[in-house]
Amino acid sequence: MAMTSPRTLSTAEERREEILQAAERVFAARGLHGTPTMDIAKAAGISQAYLFRLFPTKAELFSALVERCNDRIERTFTDAAAAARRAGEPVMHAMGTAYIGLLGDRNLLLNQLHAHAASDDPAIREQMRRGFARLVEIVERETDATPQEVRDFFAHGMLLNVLAAMQVQDVDEHWARLLLKAPPEGDEC
After folding, report:
1. Are the C-beta atoms of residues 86 and 50 closer than 8 Å to each other?
2. Distance, CA of 13 to CA of 20 (rounded, Å)
3. Measured between alpha carbons, how far is 110 from 107 in angstroms, rounded to an integer?
4. Cα–Cα dist 88/90, whole Å
5. The whole model's pTM is what?
6. Max CA-CA distance within the chain?
7. Structural contact between residues 84 and 93, judged by C-beta atoms closer than 8 angstroms
């Protein structure tokens, strides 16, 4: 008689995390409005009914994903600021460089862009506003930047999002090289 190991059940919180990991990949491909919840359930290895038990609506699932993405950016900024301070380097530049590193995660990038596009939904719009407010607060708290420098930092970040989405790093043309040119050391990202 063969021994079988006992089946271990996941907690609801563990399942929520697994669903968010699957949703990150699936939503990145088609966004909030273009993604069927069945595709997310299938990617997570669960039934659609169980998906809705943990996330009652697709918008709530997407909002949780937006929060997860924003939390990752916040941690990246905070960690980069702490590391820069320890190394005696400019904090804002370190935060910008760390953000550029995040842009290599195509799912994170595309989900950010999809979240902006889905801001016609009031709940998503509010989630995005809260996320931006926290990011601005972190940049203000961690740097001695002027209001104009904070605006420039975020404007440059949005340009980087668009360029990364278009994969401009693969384009060898003047306009692409011009827009991708890193600011000189000491200039804020």
Report:
1. no
2. 11
3. 5
4. 7
5. 0.85
6. 73
7. yes
d(CA 162, CA 167): 9
Contacts of 11-14 with CB under 8 Å at 24 or more apart are 12/54
> pLDDT at position 70, please?
94
Q: Say whether 167 sits in a helix, a strand or coil.
A: coil
Q: Is 121 left (phi over 0), alpha (psi -120 to 50) or beta?
A: beta
The answer to whether 35 and 27 are in contact (CB under 8 A) is yes
Kindly tell me the burial class for residue 140, based on how many C-beta atoms sit within 10 Å of its own C-beta (0-12, 13-18, 19 or more).
middle
CA distance 77 to 97: 10
What is residue 141's predicted lDDT score, i.e. its pLDDT? 96
Structural tokens at position 88: 């005696």
Domain ranges of the chain: 59-180
For residues 96 and 157, the answer to whether their CB atoms sit within 8 Å is: yes
* Beta carbons of 143 and 91 less than 8 angstroms apart: yes
